[in-house]
Structures are given as structure tokens and as C-alpha cells.
């Protein structure tokens, strides 16, 4: 197997060196990928029928979604491969100390999917990385001098050239609904992989994936050295000979190889599962007696209607609680427009609340809330309505909206938000909005309880996305 890899690396670098001047060399190299269809966009690409004719694919036995993840510190990275729930080829692995370049990590994810899938079966690999799909598309044309070189890119090309059935590498939108919902599962697996500790046993078959910028012969020797490792050769030999089926370690049903891994899988899986076997619902209550102003606050507002028909909303009451569930600010806001609909059946607001002495001027309420939430994370449900009523703007990176976070959206397409009372009931066994009107403190506490339940995974996803954008 080492000899086969060696000659492929020679051909790869030879095509890279003389392919432009000698079109026959480039054409001969491209013939290796005649069964490959690579698409860097929804249309276009090269290749024939079979899997390659589909614009997209649902995850299943012949289609998978892949993703890479780099943590906020840049010290750890991971890959995820998702087929469907409980599939034996689902995989999560760490790429730490191999690469923390997001493009290289995304290529590692594609390689992990290709080398572990039986080469005699059709396969569609869906990635949200335009770089990866464009890179494979260029390789399939034989124009390898147009791409940056690293060991995992060369080995991915080798595995592609040895597949006996149609192979599609396609670009999909990142974390969208419909047929692409499985991409979110791949991202979750990549996060699990980036936090894993058993790196040597999990991803020994992934070569070092840092991009090389040295001279031609130095790049050649470094790539060959990375591909010469025993674990890499053994995995490629297993793929080539098809002696045995690989078995994944990233199933979201908790089939990890360690208790820590199983817990990570359970934590991720709970993000999209309702709370079961708990029929008794409780009213929300604070988590402690701490009444300090914390770095995480939850906010909820009640509005009244103004203008013709009372369609336009105006602030009537605002409540801000700390991360322990205790109120740190509560105030009515004096009406600065004529109220045409008090919405009492929903808001509980009466004329005396916005016109009496207990109501403060809107400008004062707005100033108080702005000073309170500045530089802090704000949790809530449909916060754009609250900020609109307050006439405030809060940075997106400091907002945690339970009506926007994708795992909490309405299945199966995960596009539309769910009602707060349904989220509180299904995920936290809480009962809210039981009376005739809403209580802003209770609503804010319910949103906070949901955020606290999923805080680790929520913050992990945001940190990973931020790290990916910064590279």
C-alpha cells in the first residue's frame, strides 16, 4: 500500500509541476476521477449520473453530511460525519495537533467520510465548505497546480481515485432546514470530536493537515512523510482491500468509547429531544437567592397597542432578571402615545399601569435598561420584539434568543420558532402563562431555564462558528 501511495504522490506532484505545459499529463491524471462529481455550488460540476445527478441528498446509507470544528482558543479541532440516527458509520474525531486551520479541518472531515465508506458503494458527501468542494472540483479536472497542498488533500485525492462507484462531493448551505437539517448533526459531532481526549486512538488515520509553503521538493517530502505513518497506511489499506467494514464512534445514541464521550453524546442529543417521562409540571422559580447583577441577564417586556387598530406596539412594562432567576429591574413605562388597545387579556396591563404615578418616563426606562444590559449576555424569547419596544440595539453575539437557536425550532424542518410555554414544558417541565395574562418575570425565568439547560452546547456552537469565521 505504501508503494501505491508513493506513486500517486509522484503523479500528483508531477501533474502539479508540468500539467499546464503538458495537457496530456493533466488529462491522464483527471481520468482517475471519472467516477467523481464535485460541485462547489448547487449546479455545475463534472461527472456522470447515479449519485452525481442529485442536486442534494438526504442523509442515509449512501449519503452523509460532514463538518469541521475549531474551538475559540484555536487549540483543538474536530471532525464529524453524520449519516442518520444510530447509523454505524456516524463518526466524531479530534484533529488536535494536526490542524486548526478551518479549511484543512473541513478537508479532514471529507477524508474521514470517504476512507470509512465502502468503496464499492455509491456515496454523496455534503459539506458546507465551499473551499473543500471547489478544491475537489479542481482536482477532478486535473488542475492540481491551482490549489494549496497538504497531506490530507493529497490523500483525499488518492481515496477518491480508488473508489469504484459514483461519488458526489457537494456544497450545501450551512445549517439550513429541509434536506440540509443533517448538517447541524454533523456540526454537533464535530464539536464532540473537538472536545475529545483519546486523539491517538480515534483519528490516527488522519495525516497532519497543515498547509505547506516551502519549495517543491520540501513539500513533496513532507507530504510523503505524513502519509507514511503506520496508522494512515493501515486505514487506507483497509479501505482499499474492503476486508472489513469500519465502525463509527460518533453515533448520537451514546455509543462512544468512554463515559465522557457518552455523556457528550447524550448532551448533544438532548438538544433536539423533548423531556419525557415527566408529567408533573412546576412553576418557574429562582435557582438561588443571589440578587447581584450577573454577566448573563434575561429580559422580557409587555406591550400595549397604539395607532389605528392597536397594531403598533409600545412598551408598557419591562423585567430584567439575573442568571439566578432573581429580578434586578422591574418597571412600568408611561405611555407616550395614545393607547388604543391595552391587550389586557395577554399583557395584564391596565390603564393605571401606564398612566398612573407608578409608571416612569419611557426615556428613563430605556436609559436604565441600556446601562444594565451593556456588555452583558441577554437571554429571552423573540428578543427582537422586546428591543424594538425598548428602541434599543444589542449586539448579536451577546444575544441568546430561544426563538432563534436552531435546535429549539419546530421540527422536522427547524425553520419556525416554537411558543415559549411549549419549550418550557417540553424541555424543562415548567408551566407558564397559565392565567389570563403573561407575567414578564415568569417568561424571562422560563427562557433563562431553557438557556441554562443547553448553555454548554449553545456556547460551544457559537465559539466554534466564531473561530471558523476568524480564519
Automatic annotation (TrEMBL):
InterPro entries, A to Z: REX4_DEDDh_dom, REXO1/3/4-like, Ribonucl_H, RNaseH-like_sf, RNaseH_domain, RNaseH_sf
Domain of life: Eukaryota
GO biological process: one example: rRNA processing
Exonuclease domain sequence ranges: 295-460
This protein's GO CC annotations: nucleus
Annotated keywords: Exonuclease, Hydrolase, Nuclease, Nucleus, rRNA processing, Signal
UniProt-recorded Gene Ontology molecular function terms: 3'-5' exonuclease activity; nucleic acid binding; RNA-DNA hybrid ribonuclease activity
Subcellular location: Nucleus
Signal peptide start-end: 1-21
SMART domains on file: EXOIII
Pfam families for this protein: RNase_H, RNase_T
Main location: nucleus
Role of this protein: Exoribonuclease involved in ribosome biosynthesis. Involved in the processing of ITS1, the internal transcribed spacer localized between the 18S and 5.8S rRNAs.
Sequence similarity: Belongs to the REXO4 family.
Protein name: RNA exonuclease 4
Organism of this sequence: Ostreococcus sp. 'lucimarinus'
Organism taxonomic ancestry: Eukaryota, Viridiplantae, Chlorophyta, Mamiellophyceae, Mamiellales
Amino acid at each position: 500500500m505504501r508503494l501505491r501511495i508513493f506513486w500517486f504522490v509522484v503523479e500528483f506532484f508531477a501533474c502539479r509541476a508540468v500539467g499546464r505545459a503538458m495537457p496530456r499529463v493533466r488529462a491522464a491524471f483527471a481520468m482517475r476521477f471519472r467516477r467523481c462529481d464535485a460541485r462547489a455550488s448547487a449546479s455545475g460540476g463534472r461527472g456522470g449520473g447515479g449519485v452525481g445527478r442529485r442536486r442534494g441528498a438526504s442523509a442515509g446509507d449512501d449519503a452523509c453530511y460532514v463538518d469541521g470544528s475549531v474551538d475559540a482558543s484555536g487549540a483543538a479541532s474536530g471532525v464529524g460525519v453524520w449519516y442518520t440516527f444510530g447509523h454505524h458509520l456516524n463518526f466524531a474525531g479530534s484533529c488536535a495537533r494536526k490542524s486548526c486551520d478551518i479549511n484543512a479541518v473541513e478537508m479532514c472531515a471529507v477524508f474521514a467520510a470517504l476512507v470509512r465508506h465502502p468503496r464499492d458503494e455509491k456515496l454523496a458527501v455534503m459539506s458546507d465548505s465551499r473551499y473543500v468542494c471547489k478544491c475537489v472540483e479542481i482536482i477532478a479536472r486535473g488542475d492540481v497546480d491551482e490549489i494549496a497542498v497538504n497531506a490530507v488533500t493529497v490523500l483525499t485525492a488518492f481515496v477518491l481515485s480508488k473508489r469504484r462507484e459514483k461519488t458526489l462531493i457537494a456544497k450545501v448551505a450551512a445549517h439550513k432546514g429541509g434536506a440540509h437539517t443533517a448538517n447541524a448533526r454533523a456540526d454537533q459531532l464535530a464539536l464532540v470530536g473537538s472536545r475529545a481526549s483519546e486523539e491517538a486512538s480515534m483519528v490516527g488515520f488522519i495525516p497532519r493537515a497543515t498547509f505547506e509553503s516551502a519549495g517543491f521538493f520540501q513539500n513533496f517530502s513532507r507530504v510523503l512523510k505524513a502519509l507514511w505513518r503506520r496508522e494512515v497506511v493501515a486505514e487506507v489499506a483497509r479501505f482499499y482491500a474492503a476486508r472489513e467494514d469500519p465502525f463509527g464512534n460518533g453515533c448520537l445514541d451514546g455509543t462512544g468509547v468512554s463515559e465522557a464521550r457518552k455523556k457528550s453524546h447524550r448532551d448533544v442529543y438532548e438538544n433536539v429531544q423533548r423531556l419525557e417521562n415527566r408529567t408533573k409540571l412546576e412553576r418557574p422559580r429562582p435557582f438561588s437567592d443571589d440578587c447581584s447583577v450577573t454577566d448573563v441577564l434575561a429580559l422580557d417586556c409587555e406591550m400595549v397597542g397604539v395607532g389605528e387598530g392597536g397594531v403598533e406596539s409600545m412598551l408598557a412594562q419591562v423585567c430584567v432578571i439575573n442568571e439566578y432567576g432573581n429580578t434586578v429591574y422591574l418597571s412600568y413605562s408611561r405611555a407616550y402615545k395614545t393607547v388604543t388597545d391595552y391587550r389586557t387579556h395577554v399583557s395584564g396591563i391596565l390603564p393605571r399601569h401606564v398612566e398612573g404615578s407608578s409608571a416612569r418616563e419611557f426615556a428613563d426606562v430605556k436609559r436604565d435598561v441600556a446601562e444594565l444590559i451593556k456588555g452583558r449576555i441577554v437571554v429571552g424569547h423573540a428578543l427582537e420584539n422586546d428591543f424594538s419596544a425598548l428602541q434599543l440595539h444589542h449586539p448579536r453575539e451577546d444575544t441568546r434568543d430561544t426563538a432563534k437557536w436552531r435546535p429549539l425550532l419546530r421540527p422536522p424542518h427547524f425553520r419556525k420558532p416554537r411558543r415559549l410555554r411549549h419549550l418550557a414544558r417540553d424541555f424543562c417541565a415548567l408551566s407558564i402563562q397559565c392565567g389570563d395574562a403573561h407575567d414578564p418575570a415568569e417568561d424571562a425565568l422560563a427562557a433563562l431555564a431553557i438557556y441554562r439547560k443547553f448553555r454548554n452546547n449553545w456556547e460551544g456552537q457559537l465559539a466554534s462558528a466564531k473561530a471558523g469565521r476568524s480564519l
